[in-house]
Amino acid sequence: MVVGAGPVGLWTAAELALGGVRAVILERAVERSPYSKALGVQPRTLEVLAMRGLAQRLIDEGRKVPAWHFGMLPNRLDYRVLDTPFPYMLAIPQLRTERLLEEQAVRLGVQIRRGHAVTGLDQDDDGVRLHVTGPDGDYTLDTQYVVGADGVGSVVRTAAGIAFPGTDTTGYHYLGEVRVTETPVVSAQNEHGAFLSVLLPDGRYRFAGTDAHDNNDRGPMTMEALRATVKRVSGSDFGMHDPAWLSRFGNATRLAEHYRKGRVVLAGDAAHRHVPAGGVGLNVGVQDAMNLGWRLAAVARGDADPALLDDYHEERHAVGEELIEHTMAQSALIAATTPETVALRSLLNSMVVDVPEFALALARRLSALDVAYKSDGHPLIGIRVRGHVSLDGRPVLCTPALGPATAAAAEELGIEVITAESTMLIRPDGHVWWAADDADDHVIAQALRDLGVRFPAPARV
Ligand SMILES: Cc1cc2nc3c(=O)[nH]c(=O)nc-3n(C[C@H](O)[C@H](O)[C@H](O)COP(=O)(O)OP(=O)(O)OC[C@H]3O[C@@H](n4cnc5c(N)ncnc54)[C@H](O)[C@@H]3O)c2cc1C
Predict the structure, then answer these.
(1) Portions of the chain given CATH number 3.30.70.2450
(2) How far is 325 from 274, CA to CA, in rounded Å?
(3) pTM to 2 decimals?
(4) Fold that domain 172-250 belongs to in CATH
(5) d(CA 395, CA 453)
(6) Cβ-based neighbours of 376, under 8 Å, separated by 6 or more
(7) 182, 238 in Cβ contact below 8 A?
(8) Which atom of ligand 1 is nearest to the CA of 29?
(9) What is the pLDDT along the chain (461 residues), one digit of tens a residue?
(10) Which of 242, 407, 434, 455 could be a cystine partner for 414, CB 3.0 to 4.6 Å?
(11) Strands 264-266 and 146-148, how do they pair?
């Protein structure tokens, strides 16, 4: 059972189904929210979607943005220099991204039950009992594993007793989607606050930023407050009118202590809460789901030891730590109004232009192209791979020459084989699982068996 039909729940369920597991999503809302929180899809997410043959559909619907911002610094990071087939940020509303993810999930047989809210859970060594309130009242559901993809207020996380340490909200970021009579500046920042403006597909502009004067205002965002802030920061309100969405977001930042507790696993915002800066939350969540899906499918099928799920925590919690670090840093840059923090912002802004390696490192961090999982083995193990991934979610062995022992092991374990210059095994999520220099046939065959995971033919779905 997957709790939550946001982007992360949808992608996790789709990956589980691809791995031959019947996945059901319980979603509290009867209908999807009309608001698109995320507006951007990062390069690594496009690589991930490309591994399942879905990237082009999204690219056709979106707009390619070749340079992106870190913490609203005026000097942009050049994405065109990134080593990826998708060297841009794809501007596309979250609603459309979710629609594509949902189509993939439904196509693979995922059932989505809308209007079913999870209210609690109990687990023991044999399974999990979910407590649910549905349209016809309360009921319980027994299941093997539960994925909590139920967002920042995750009931699954709380009910499983997973700690969520971090910082409380000390300031607010505002958001307003409005029509204008005058084209706004792209960004502005001074002692009164900051904003970034983004043109939306419906012709409105999204203004998002911080206000130094009402930073601790917890009340609902109003048109008057948005107008006043934007005018104080830039000198004009650009004739704003006709709001579609006005909101505020606190800067609380938290990271789940454990991504897995027994038979409960967390992914996406349920595992990490942070300021929406740099356009990363949805992206990191989809990449959590990509790391989790094939593992959980293999464990649920009985084709892998449950310890495979502990590696999910090891790998993605480390990415979560970097995520909260750089979003907090961006939050500080956006809210910078003291002479010291303004000086810091100015220094970093110059470095984006003067030190190309610095800009590249930031771009690789936001785009998630720098994610390489730690390993004590061969230097290639854990790094990301762009191609050589099977569309049906099975591992791929790249090797210059296929010996009979390796061929037999690959056949038995359900691993695809392709000819390549070096020997390495690519995981279903596009990271190197195992690699060797000059390994002979028997060593490769034994290494495949030692991984301890079988991938039966997709016909088992
Ligand atoms: C203003 C703003 C701008 C953003 N911009 C970007 C961006 O440009 N790029 C980016 O990558 N990210 C961005 N993000 C972050 C992104 O929107 C989130 O990270 C993303 O939605 C997380 O997806 P999720 O599936 O984990 O959680 P959610 O999208 O929150 O989905 C959780 C789902 O679980 C359901 N649910 C909750 N509780 C229960 C329950 N008890 N039972 C059943 N169902 C339940 C909810 O109804 C919801 O459908 C932005 C966020 C904000 C607020």
Answers:
(1) 172-250
(2) 9
(3) 0.96
(4) Alpha-Beta Plaits (3.30.70)
(5) 10
(6) none
(7) yes
(8) 47
(9) 999 999 999 999 999 999 999 999 999 999 988 889 999 999 999 999 999 999 999 999 999 999 999 999 999 999 999 999 999 999 999 999 999 999 999 999 999 999 999 999 999 999 999 999 999 999 999 999 999 999 999 999 999 999 999 999 988 999 999 999 999 999 998 889 999 999 998 899 999 999 988 766 678 899 999 999 999 999 999 999 999 999 999 999 999 999 999 999 999 999 999 999 999 999 999 999 999 999 999 999 999 999 999 999 999 999 999 999 999 999 999 999 889 999 999 999 999 999 999 999 999 999 999 999 999 899 999 999 986 677 789 999 999 999 999 999 999 999 999 999 999 999 999 999 999 998 899 999 999 999 999 998 754 43
(10) 455
(11) parallel
Joined tokens for residue 46: 């496009």
Strands (E), 136-268: 137-143, 146-148, 166-167, 172-179, 187-190, 193-199, 205-211, 241-250, 253-255, 260-261, 264-266
Q: 397 has which bridge partners?
A: 417, 425
Architecture of domain 2-167+254-367: 3-Layer(bba) Sandwich (3.50)
Residues with CB under 6 A from ligand 1: 3-9, 26-29, 37-40, 94, 117-118, 149-151, 155, 175, 249, 268-270, 276, 279-283, 285
**Where do the CATH 3.50.50.60 domains begin and end in the chain?**
2-167+254-367
Euclidean distance between the first and final Cα of the chain, in Å?
16
Q: Which amino acid is at 185?
A: V
Sheet holding 63-65, edge to edge: 40-41, 89-91, 63-65
From the CA of 439, how far away is ligand 1's center (Å)? Answer: 45
Residue type, 236: S
**Bridge-partner residues for 142, per DSSP?**
129
What's the rounded Cα separation, in Å, for the pair 219 and 217? 6
Alpha helices in 62-171 (DSSP H): 94-107, 155-159
CA distance 76 to 237: 24
Query: For a pocket test of ligand 1, which of 3, 138, 150 has the largest count of ligand atoms closer than 8 A to its C-beta?
Result: 150
